[in-house]
Specification:
Largest sheet: 5 strands, parallel
Strand order of the largest sheet: 1-2-5-9-10
Radius of gyration: 19 Å
Number of domains: 2
Strand content: 5-15%
Length: 263
């Protein structure tokens, strides 16, 4: 059977500027639900929904402080459930933006991790000691400057490939990986149509070897994710992979490798 997504028309909704339902000047989930008949008329099969999770909004919602809560400016989880169900009635699937390379520094994991070097959450993130009183190495943030930020309280640097307020997650930690899979299954159980995976090529990073994208463990992590979450479901998964060659793109999307639908 041909997967539905091979013939699907996907429409991106940037919620903040799409449709405001309550007159506060910010688009919201109720606004998207209100426009579903219009979207159906356009002939779309799926909505890629830019992030609506709880967030301080340092990076337009790509800095997530709670993966299982909706940011109040967009509405409530009840609004999200209604959007999913009303879209489904019209044959439209909701594809969530999945941001698992990093979190917000306001996420409870990082708040805990900062407390001490022996905190149980410390290893959810990537910490290094100073080298000669400076950053551990020359890795750069995509948002300019060093990818290392000194945490004054513990005297160690944490890695952030984007804003200072977006600490990178440590995918080498199996407990962290399982937490992420549990969160993905939380959304899958709500009936979403899949995930668009933000900067997913960075999860196999090896900062000590100055490797950002396409690290040694990237594909094994994706295969594990596939097995523990969406692999047996009829979902669409799209990887954001800026640094893929055609050969690497084939590896991600080869059905026999059990990774992603496409990049």
């Amino acid at each position: 059977m041909t997967p539905w997504w091979k013939k699907a028309v996907v429409y991106q909704v940037y919620p903040k500027s799409f449709q405001d339902s309550n007159g506060d000047g910010i688009g919201d989930l109720k606004g998207i639900t209100f426009r579903l008949d219009y979207l159906k008329k356009l002939g779309i099969d799926a909505i890629w929904l830019s992030p609506v999770y709880q967030s301080p909004q340092v990076d337009n919602g790509y800095d997530i402080s709670d993966y299982e809560a909706i940011d109040p400016q967009y509405g409530t989880m009840a609004d999200m459930d209604k959007l999913i169900s009303e879209a489904k009635k019209r044959g439209i699937r909701i594809v969530m933006d999945l941001v698992v390379n990093h979190t917000s520094d306001q996420h409870k994991w990082f708040i805990e991790a900062r407390k001490s070097k022996d905190n149980p959450y410390r290893d959810y993130y990537i910490w290094r000691d100073p080298v000669d009183g400076h950053e551990p190495n020359e890795l750069k943030s995509a948002f300019s400057g060093s990818a290392w930020k000194l945490d004054e309280k513990t005297g160690q640097y944490y890695l952030h490939f984007f804003a200072d307020q977006q600490p990178d997650l440590n995918w080498k930690n199996p407990i962290l990986r399982q937490k992420i899979y549990d969160m993905m299954n939380f959304w899958i159980d709500k009936g979403i149509g899949g995930f668009r995976m933000d900067v997913i090529e960075l999860i196999g990073k090896d900062p000590d070897k100055l490797i950002r994208e396409n690290g040694l463990m990237l594909h094994p992590y994706l295969q594990e994710m596939n097995k523990k979450t969406f692999g047996s479901k009829n979902l669409m998964t799209v990887g954001e992979t800026w640094n893929s060659t055609p050969k690497i793109a084939e590896e991600y999307s080869d059905p026999g490798r059990h990774e992603l639908s496409m990049v």
